[in-house]
Fold:
Amino acid sequence: MAKAPNQSEKTAISPTRSEDYPQWYQQVVKAADLAETSDVRGCMVIKPWGYALWENMQAVLDQMFKDTGHKNAYFPLFIPKSYLEKEAEHVEGFAKECAVVTHHRLEADGAGGLQPAGELEEPLVVRPTSEMIIGASFAKWGESYRDLPLLINQCANVVRWELRTRLFLRTAEFLWQEGHTAHATEAEALEETAKMHEVYARFAEDYMAMPVIKGAKPAHERFPGAVNTLSIEAMMQDKKALQAGTSHFLGQNFAKAQGIEYHGEDEQRHFAWTTSWGVSTRLVGGLIMTHSDDDGLVLPPRLAPAHVVIMPITFKADDPDAVIAYCQQLADDLREVQYSGGPLRVELDTRDIRGGEKTWGWVKQGVPIRLEVGQRDMASDSVFMARRDRSPKDKAGVPRTEFLDTVADTLADIQNTLFERAKAFRAEHSRVINARDKFENYFKGDAPGKGGFALAHWNGDVEIAKKIQDELAVTIRCIPDDGAIDDLLGGPNEPGKCIFTGEPSDKRVVWSKAY
Structure:
């Protein structure tokens, strides 16, 4: 992680991370022109740069889903209230967040206003998640074992009536993808749950350059109605955890509630086994908080809306048009270069604004490579290059042909550098803790070095976990998979004793404050 600047150092973002992390986050979003608060309470407007970032995420995930046999579909935004009521635990988990439509039109009230009219026979819930509405279709589609598995993904918006909102991290309306599948056997559904868990982990690490810990949620933290929930957990630069993706094994709970049955090879009727899994625009917030610094957004190249920005320096040039033409040819040549499975994404910035303002604008937007090309650079057939993973002052002249030959390698190096930095930061702020007093001290106060990931034994008692949450605002992020935290432990996750009761514990779990 880039270090916070000294008091004497000027930064593009104020306040800095060390001064006020939540406000720093908001200012990075604003400075990068990613999104803004909407006039609609709790909602956001995702601006073109932010939406391009989400599109790139969505495109990569879409291909990963298709590579694992899934197909895209779309289901209604409105869900009859009676559908949600079919699975008691599910409806209880989402009831407080539901937005409900009760009328189907407005009528003038005679005083210049409008009043709801045409009351619906049954209220409609605005989609908080789609298990119930998709399950209604699955009940029609899976008549025979020959029709299974059903492997469906939907990209959509959802509404959860959040009281406290923050751009990308928690809004009343957000974008996501949600996968839903139905299988003939428990084993197939369990395999699917684990497979998508791995897909999310691979996406986070290989594309977002964000190291994650894979594991299962404890029973009290599972998705409402799920038999098991698997998650990936990442550490942000304020040392809090972010749940970055979940995959749920739903058993037969939803199938029984919705009548998802199939005719088996044994000529008998059976309930299907179902799963669901999803990630959302919350990943944009996670990316911001994993990599960005006190100069603004820092983007991993594999997801950046632009890999390279070219800034012609025409001030005092004898022939400004020649400089621009040189840069245009450079942009065309760069677009012929392949990186991460596709052509380079290149921005040519010919806006008539001051060079310093233009440069800092792109720094704050996080473009991995910036090029400045002036008359002298053109004359020497070279470019002036800067990398976003380094200081904005760290620039160097590079021959044009050399830059074209090495740009893909440079981007790969930036991607790897960001991942290794984030991984080193996580290691620095993870602690193996074997005593309750040390655990409590680790999370109390905001002094440097406080908090992070605590790797501690727990006996599985839900009441203990809830008590710790109430007292310290610390939760169990996951019960890690075998091997998931070996690098942090310096060895295998061995059995031990619960630090709260002294009772046996199968393995250490990951504790943290979280978003």
Q: What stands out?
A: The radius of gyration is 26 Å. The first strand starts at residue 35 and ends at 37. Residues 2-8 have pLDDT under 50 and may be disordered. The chain has 15 helices and 27 strands.
